[in-house]
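Researcher: Let's continue the batch. This sequence belongs to DNA 3'-5' helicase, and it's 972 residues. Same format as the previous ones, please.
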Amino acid sequence: MNIAPTITKHYQDLNDAQRTIVAHLDGPLLVIAGPGSGKTYSIVLRALNLLLLGKALPRQLVLCTFTEKAAFEMRDRLATAARKVGYTGDLSELTVSTIHGFCNRILLQHRHRTNLGHGFDTLDELTQLLFIFEHFDEIIGPAENGFFLGRWKTRWTAIEGARGYFNKITEELVDPAQLIASADPFHVAIGHAYRRYERALLNANRTDFAHLQRLVYDLLSDPDTADAVTRDLRYVLVDEYQDTNYIQEQLLLKLTEKTRNLCVVGDEDQSLYRFRGATVRNILEFPQRMPGCKVVKLTTNYRSHRAIVERYDRWMASADWSNPHGPSFRYDKTIEADPAAAHPSYPAVIAIWGKDRRDEAARFADLVDFLKKNEVIADYSQVALLLHSVREEHSGPYLAALAAKGIPAFCPRARAYFEIPEVRDLVACFAVLFGWHGNGRGQVGGAVAELAAYVDDAIVQLGRRFGAPHPLADALQRWTGEIETPEKSETLDLRPADYFYRLLALDPFKTAVRNENTARNLAIFSQLLSIFQSYYHYTVVTHKNREFLRFHFFNSFLRLLYDGGINEYEDPDQPFPKGHVQVMTIHQAKGLEFPVVVVGSLSTQLSSPKQIDRDLTPFYHRPPFEPENRITLFDRMRLHYVAFSRPQKLLVLTAHETPKDHFAPIWEGLPQWPYVQKDLLAAQRFEARERMPVKKTYSFTGDLKIYETCPRQYQFFREYDFTPSRSAVIFFGLLVHQTIEEIHRIALDGKLDTLDEPRIRELFERTFRFLCLSDVRPIGDAAKEAAFTQVLNYFRQNRDEMRRVIQTEVDVSLEKDGYILAGKVDLLLGGDGKLELLDFKTSPRPKDSPELIAAYERQLCTYAHILERRHGKRVDRLMLYWTSEPRKEDALMVLPYDPKRVEEAGRYFDETVRRIQAREFVVTTPPEPAICRECDLRLLCHAEGIVGAGDMGRASNNSKTRPSRPLPSKTD
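Model: Same format as before. Here are the structure tokens for DNA 3'-5' helicase:
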């Protein structure tokens, strides 16, 4: 077999199917991987084998998986395996990401070939809804005969409904012209709305997740661009292929059209994401899409007890998967337990049958208590309860039963964010501040009525605990008057987020942020406020916008969030906290394993979304696949197959109503708790495997500089992820920087001769327009012309040098022992075997600032440290370029290269990361007063005695101001 000797030496436990996967070199490969069969293990070793045999360099290899978390874990497993077999190549150049992440990376490199501008924004589920809301009149239009687009009665149902169609049209590559040409009025309406939506996205320099992929698909559809994108791509390996959609299939086929080196891995039995547009047909029809592909089946389960494997395998085979018109809807396979493992005799699959919901939940809690008291489990976190939904109405009885026995539970995705006491208090404070309470709110009904009841109760509870003379009550009274009193010509130089940071300096919030988990949940509130300010365009509070702000924040924004629910913070490094029974949805459990898994929702009526497909199927590029009357059963089987295959030692099925008929083959005949052989079960000891946290990434500007400035700022804005009230980015510097990058990208394309002053002006104006769409204060005409002069001077004086440009805006990273060091290099220059590093500054060259120059030098040395480790060669020159200097001899600063300084920079970064990871966030010496005056935390730090009153500056100023022209821009 074509397996590198070092892999053979260190991985002797590979089974025959795994060896076949690892040894596969060229051509398409389909891996059907049953639960617990070592698919990630096999993918990682195959990638490593390709590298060891010299079939590819790290940068020529792409590994895609379904979630970012899975991508991080795969990256770490690859690095661990590389160390084990002695591979010394630079794995930081290897791409391990989601398909969306890979598409984003391609777009960042080739954005100048699209209509997107620099700094484009990608909408997530929430901001996509808000974007459609923001452009509602433009995209959806007025209601006709009481219906929007002929289908939806209210604005929000129209927004949510249209969003689903927009995504599906994009993901299925539906031509809107065909919709518009249809005889069906709804097709015509949604086709026109889709075109208006696309136009609005383009004008706002935004994209969504579906269009992120569509943009890359369009790049790959152009032969010249496709060559540039795929030129250095040799192998693509894709995990969880059963959860891909049509456009992702087409993207992957186009990416590997020349090499045919596409390996897809998955399990059609675990296809769960039809509701997100995924289709199981991609994996079932892969052999037809890639003729001559090799098919390997991984069918040995190394995770679960034999009794569990045999039960769920027989159950899955009990359904009718036949297809009279083509390949079966399930690959023919039998999953078997590891023959070499011990499978002791005890009741490994049992049932709980309750008289009602409370009795069922009580029996579940009794089982958990039994397992812990008899030391069958060492920790409650070894037990996972899996449900179709974990909202309170579904998970509540179980959580109450556990609590009654003193058993802690962890259920962060119950969408119960607004039930967190401190969040309720914050909502109450904002309702008081902006007058959304009592008679001021007016009559409300429908969906807003639930929010109104919640807010009224929150205000009552807040008043009982923090009424006058409490400082919070006094502050709310003063600030309410401040908001209500501006005259017509006045504005408050305050945003809603500014009031959030004022509140943090008062109890109960001042005390609450001392608890790390609470602080992170409050950070989510700051993020939501930032989204609100951005999408509803509330930069400051004014006399004119007070009423609109109140209405939009509560009746629109908060109502949407409250109605949909938000999850609490989850620690990505400790997703399963010790001492807690894990309560999660089956979807959340995909890819995980636990010693004990309890599966509920056996009597729940599940349904599959069909209306969008019914409407759009005539416009798809493929005919229907699974019969509509069998889809719901297929989806139910696949969902619970995932659940039943999660446990290692004990599978428990629980219900208080008769399970759906299709569960009969696995449910009937099971021993019921507590009437099982308890002595055999009590004699077992279920060990839990420690989950290693993935390595974190740290950068010079995003981590080291912030930590150096103030450890407290780092703790709140980087560690807890609070969002500042205002953007700290400077428009002028971005305008110059981004226009120069556009010039460099054209030079890299070999089209330097197309650049002249009119073309540069065009690039400059385009960059300016897109920047004006961002949350950055724009500059006046004089500053704008000064920026253009800088760009033009740079181009004229460095045109010849641009032929030496190797890369621009280069993301570089280096894997260290305990973290990943990352950075972004403005420019790499080459030629004659040299490597030169250049960083741009848009301010004048400092005349007498040795500390500033030293800081910039340390930044360049850090980047040189990364590049030396990556390329194995020394950087020849470190350069700074001050673009505001009119003469090149003044603008270009060459710093003396000293290998010792480069190594010193690397050690300094190591030490800073050590302090961050040790959570050394105490401020021993306050920063410069100017830094504190501009910091959102200044009031909190003052309240805690970290800074004195003399450092408060802006906080003590009168916040009522007259309208003024934009402030002149600062320089970096």
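Researcher: Any comment?
Model: The two ends are 57 Å apart (CA to CA).
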